[in-house]
Structures are given as structure tokens and as C-alpha cells.
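Example 5.3 — Methyltransferase
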Amino acid sequence: MDNPELARIPGVNPHVPDAARIYDYTLGGTHHFEVDRQAAEFMFSLVPSTRKWLRMLRGCLRTAAQRLSSDGFHHWVDFASGLPTSDHVHSVLPQAKVLYSDINPLTIATGKHLLGDNPRTRYMECDIRSAGDFLRRPDVQTFLDGERRVAFGANGITVFLSSEENRKFFRDLYDWAAPGSKLFATFETKAPGLSTPKWEQFVGMFQKMGESFQLYSLREYLDLCGPWTPGPGGVMTVREFLGLPVGHITEEDREGVGIEFYAVILEKR
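Solution (predicted C-alpha cells):
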């Protein structure tokens, strides 16, 4: 069933699929329309494990938020946030200041609507290719109380950036942040040289929308993240990060191309 409250937000078009609403549907949310559900189901027909992997990624984000809260972080800056629904960072860290950001104006408008007048959250426009400029904005500094020892979130971002853009993104955050800051990131990989017609069609969907979709090896990801350093626990598969049993991921979930997702909490020493 469509969300009537969502349809009343200025600029929201219930007849055109939207990436953030597709993601919300995939996670089991309620902020989507029939056109979003159809688009998501088409993605699932190509790569059926998409729903499972994305739900694990959201679980990793919540787990990372809990761990960093216990480490004493009270300011969280999240990039390419999507919709800040009830399972996002601010619900895990109700006492922290959480800054969400995205480049899509409709996602931002919807996000602001969902957050309402919560004084400990903000939703701002940010192109992650210019993250350094975003962090230096006066309104960002004001919301963060001038704090630069912060926790960053970069969940499911790296595949949409070129290697040069990834390197700049991570360097921008590192250069701005104070020592002791931490960065939660996830990486998607597949086996080199393996592909299937459905996988190629899946990747082609993003390319038709004008999006880059590039997977790197784990070694390449960690190089692109430099000079951030993996913290205690190092890099884990998302299954390990969530403490799930070995059999939770099956060969079918790897879609014939060896899909694997990793999670890591990086730190600036």
C-alpha cells in the first residue's frame, strides 16, 4: 500500500521510481510507492540476494553506531544517507547529534519530513565528491558544535565512485577530522573474472541511470581508504561483523560471481 503522507511532500512523484524509496522497500520499510516496489522486484529478479545483503548492510550500520557510541562518540556524520527511517543511526543514538546528507533533493526533502523537529538531527545536501567542502561549511560546523572528533558513516558508497573519487572522499574526511575520529565503511567485492548475464544486466541498470558501478578488490579498497587505518578487529565480512553463523551466507547468495561484502571501522590515529 502506498504511503499517503509521503505523497504530500512537495516535489515527490509517486509515478517515478526513486533510489532511496527502492532502498527503503528493500529494507522492509513503508516509505515507497508501487513504482518503487516494481523497480525493486525487478532488481531482485536479477540478483535475488540483493534484499538479504542490503538488510545486512543496514544491520552493520546500526552495529557500528552502537560500538562507536560505546567508544564515546556523540557526533555522527553520515554520507549518502538515503531515508532516515526508524532503523537509521539517530534511532540507535538518540542522545547523539546525527548529520545526514545526500545529493538527491527529493531524498533530502523526504528526510527532513521524516526527522521533523528533532533538534539533534539535520539533513543537508552534500555531493560526496566534495565532502571536504561540505564539512567546512559554517552550518555544518555549527550543528557539530565545532567538534571534529567525530564518527563518519560511509555505508554502501564506494561502488558508485571511481577510484580517484574514492581516494579523494576518504582523504577529504581524514584531512578534516581530528585524531581519534573513526569511519565506518562497507565494501562490495566479487570474484575476479566471474560474471553472468543477469549480473551484467544488474550493473547495466545503474549505468542507464547515469551511475558508476565499480567493484574493487579488498586490497584496492583498503588502498583507496588510506591513510585511514583499520581499528581493533580489522576488516570483517558483514556476516562476521554481525556475529551471524557461518551458514548464514549460501552459495546461492553469491549469485555465481562470488559476491562478498566487508565492513570495517577505520580510525585516524
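Remark. The longest helix spans residues 50-70.
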